[in-house]
Amino acid sequence: MRHRSLLILTAVLTTGALTLTACGSRDEGSKGSGDSGGKTTVVIGVDAPLTGSLSALGQGIKNSVDLAAKTANKNNEVPGIEFKIEALDDQAVPASGQANATKLVGNPDVLGAVGPLNSGVAQSMQGVFDKADLTQVSPANTNPALSQGDNWGKGDPKRVFKTYFRTCATDVVQGKFAAQYLYNDAKKKKVYVVDDKQTYGAGLAAIFSAEFERLGGKVIGTDHVTVKETDFSSTADKVKSSGADSVYYGGQYPEGGLLSDQIKKTGAKIPTMGGDGIYDPAFISASGEANDGDLATSIGYPVEALPTAKKFIEDYKAGGYKDPYAAYGGYSYDAAWSIIQAVKAVVADNDGKLPEDARAKVTEAMSKVSFDGVTGKVSFDEFGDTTNKQLTVYEVQKGAWKDVKSATFED
Amino acid sequence: MHELPQQLANGLALGALYGLIAIGYTMVYGIVQLINFAHGEIFMIGGFGALTTYLMLPSGTTLLVAIPLMIIGGAIASVTVATAAERFAYRPLRGAPRLAPLITAIGLSIVLQQLVWGFYPDAKKPLSFPEFGGDSFHLLDNLYLQRADAFILVLAPLCMLALGMFVSKSRSGRAMQATAQDPDTAKLMGINTNRIIVMAFAIGAAFAAVAAVAYGLDKGQIGWEMGFLLGLKAFTAAVLGGIGNIYGAMVGGVVLGLAEALSIAYIEEIPGMQQLGGGAWANVWAFVLLIVVLLVRPQGLLGERVTDRA
Lengths: 411, 310
Description:
The structure holds 2 protein chains of 2 kinds.
Chain A: H1 2-33, E1 40-48, H2 55-74, E2 81-89, H3 94-106, E3 110-114, H4 119-131, E4 135-138, H5 145-148, E5 164-166, H6 171-185, E6 190-195, H7 199-215, E7 218-224, H8 233-242, E8 246-250, H9 253-265, E9 272-274, H10 281-285, E10 295-299, H11 310-319, H12 329-349, H13 358-366, E11 370-373, E12 376-379, E13 390-397, E14 400-408
Chain B: H1 4-32, H2 39-56, H3 63-90, H4 99-119, E1 127-128, E2 137-140, E3 143-145, H5 147-169, H6 171-181, H7 183-188, H8 193-219, E4 221-222, H9 226-241, H10 246-266, H11 282-296, H12 306-309
Antiparallel strand pairs in B: 1-4, 2-3
Helix pairs in contact in B: 1-5, 1-8, 1-9, 1-10, 2-3, 2-4, 2-8, 2-9, 3-8, 5-6, 5-8, 6-8, 9-10, 10-11
Keywords (chain B): Amino-acid transport, Cell inner membrane, Cell membrane, Membrane, Transmembrane, Transmembrane helix, Transport
Membrane topology (chain B): Multi-pass membrane protein
Protein name (chain B): Branched-chain amino acid ABC transporter permease
């Protein structure tokens, strides 16, 4: 007994001493840099494809996180803390994502990261963040295995990484919701399923197919395309001659847009449906062919329609960002804001100072975060998944995405 | 089998595109035995040159007027870059071991991609390219020919014909043949071999520009990454047809295009092969074909025996 209490006493004293010295040096450091006016700098990392064909989405993520940081600084959301962002480009390549994660971990001021966009990239980053106890909140990863482990489909969900959170609903929710809409609302019975063989696309297509057949529809054929290829005319002709009345595409908009256009060029007047990966203006502008009638599901209610989002949209416009906030702007803002709230809770618990083990404390605080965000109520369940299961179906009408149905998903 | 004519048309159009790009690989290889891996990027730059030309034209110009100008604009860009590459990257290495220029070519390919990525306005994402308006041609009950496909199916044979005439009939063309057969003797006969080599690069680049315009008109977009994969396929086509032979390039392209289209459509219908069909496996089957052809005819479909050359 005596030994144990001695041990605890020593540990407490050491931690206390370390915290004090660390705080001292941190303050000195920020005074040294001069521009933060005696405040402690907390950096929120951003990892997204800022260049390449998915950059439309990536830039929206980066700008929205930037807006969240600026808003927090302006409102003095966390007294004594100045938020900054460090945005890194992963080009949608897993290896780059891992390198970026390592870089963010190496910067002691980083207390949380927003990103990445692609589920495949997330797989390569999770382990790095987990070892460093660094919170990661993705605004866009929808693969269920990322939070619930590989056996999620077999009724044995298990959290793999304690540092991983996301503000968007998973493919399970999205794929089923899409199947229900296509079968019940759009009255399509024969679907041709194409995917891009990636973590996100193939997973989504499989969930969609299972639910569509469970409802009584028929998957009349399947095919796969290769990312970065551009000629899908042979696949398009197979779709046409199969007699399908609709196409479901699991993948991203660069290939999805071309596939939809090339199917329409064959003369088949059938809609292509996809997940949030194709919900982007670039899907429509991929080529000149009209996309009217094509469908996409996306997470949450349309940002424009939420009363909570009005301020976000106004602020984003006032921010003067070059690129639009795109499909994940609202989720990225909420992801960054959840980190800010976690930092706030940690600082409040520690007499207005950052504790020495701030990263671990922030990760702990994340599970208790709850606030009304741009996309609705933001909080995380025991897996780190969002508790928000609102979804919307969008349709291309006159060359623009328009929301046609919003609902809360029910299994 | 109802869709066979359609799939043949798809394969032909894709193959003609491969063939036009493959000319560049085969001409350069035939004369200096260099595999110019930067040729895919020359193709890409041709596309950007054409798009720039289009954007400079007054809006409302009909495609009929715009296309020839775009081809010229694209060719100016691609030929300039290709000849500059020859002068500053390859010529200094003319006497070096063959691996040196090969590595240079790979490096050049990366440099060109990054230059376009970094300096062409807005090129970090795909740029939209003008497309043909109007419906596709309805030739048969089960055959629709899209306008862009018709365009390349007409243009590619014309280009091949012109190139064939040039090589066999004109003075420069015969000088080119002589240089390919024996550069040293050709030099002794008073042929300026350096000029001939530049010409080979320039012709390949011009063909690549034509291909780039056809590609843009078909897909409706171009991007800085588009040259890599297509360049690789075109190089495969050149090897398949017999590298060094200009007709072989076109034949190889068409065979490769048809193989891809037909394998996407029909492999999965063979009983037991369902898992190995579709778009995911098209490249695998194309390369299986390449290996089989090279096992039977190592010199390629129309290639000369390598021993003849040595």
